[in-house]
Write a structure and sequence with these properties.
Blueprint: H1 2-13, H2 22-46, H3 52-81, H4 84-98, H5 102-109, H6 125-145, H7 153-174, H8 176-181, H9 183-186
C-alpha cells in the first residue's frame, strides 16, 4: 500500500494525462499512517502506559533529523532560487513547517494548485503538519472517550469520522483550499 501511495503521488507530479490521482496516494498514506499510529496510541492507552512526551519524542526522533537536513539545504538554496516575494512566503512556510503548522500557512497563502506552487519548496510539508496535528488531537479525544465504557470508543470514533467526512463535503463548496489543508475536514 505504501508503494501504491508513493507511486501515485510521483506519477501525479509527472503531469501525465489521465494519471492525475495524486490525492489518492496522499489519502492512502494518511490511512496507513493513521492506522499504525492510532493502534500504537490505543494499545498504550489500554495498557495504561501511554505517555505523550515519550510518544512525541519517538515521532520527533524519527522525523526531525531528515526534516532538519532538508530545511537547511532548502534554506541555503532559497535566496538563489526564489523571488523576493516567494522568499518572504518561504520564511513563513519554514516557520510553519518547524511548528507543524505548514498546512495552515500554505492554506493562508493560496491554493495547492495555483501557478506559484513551483515557488513553494516546502509545499509537501502540509501533509506532515496535518498528520502531526492529528497525533496531537487523537490522544485528547481518546482520553475523553476513556470516561465512557470501552465498548463506546469505536462507535464514537466512527461518529467523529462520519462528522469529519460530512464537514469536508459541505466545506468543499465554501473553501476548497481550506477543506484540503485543514484537520477538521481531513481527519476522516
Amino acid at each position: 500500500l505504501r508503494a501504491i501511495a508513493v507511486l501515485s503521488v510521483l506519477i501525479f507530479h509527472f503531469d501525465l494525462p489521465g494519471l492525475n490521482k495524486g490525492f489518492l496516494g496522499v489519502d492512502i498514506f494518511f490511512v496507513i499512517s493513521g492506522y499504525l499510529m492510532s493502534r500504537v496510541i490505543v494499545d498504550e492507552m489500554d495498557e495504561a502506559r501511554f505517555r505523550p512526551g515519550s510518544f512525541y519524542f519517538r515521532r520527533a526522533r524519527r522525523l526531525l533529523p531528515a526534516a532538519l537536513v532538508m530545511f537547511t539545504w532548502v534554506t541555503l538554496l532559497a535566496p538563489w532560487a526564489l523571488t523576493i516575494s516567494a522568499l518572504h512566503d518561504y520564511a513563513m512556510q519554514l516557520a510553519g513547517a518547524l511548528g507543524f503548522m505548514a498546512n495552515v500557512v500554505l492554506w493562508q497563502q493560496s491554493g495547492y494548485f495555483d501557478g506559484q506552487a513551483t515557488l513553494k519548496p516546502l509545499l509537501h510539508t502540509w501533509s506532515l503538519a496535518l498528520e502531526e496535528q492529528y497525533y496531537f488531537v487523537l490522544p485528547l479525544v481518546l482520553g475523553a472517550l476513556a470516561w465512557w465504557h470501552r465498548r463506546w470508543r469505536a462507535p464514537a470514533m466512527l461518529a467523529l469520522t462520519v462528522a469529519s467526512f460530512a464537514l469536508a463535503q459541505w466545506a468543499l463548496q465554501l473553501d476548497p483550499s481550506g477543506t484540503f489543508y485543514l484537520l477538521p475536514t481531513r481527519a476522516w
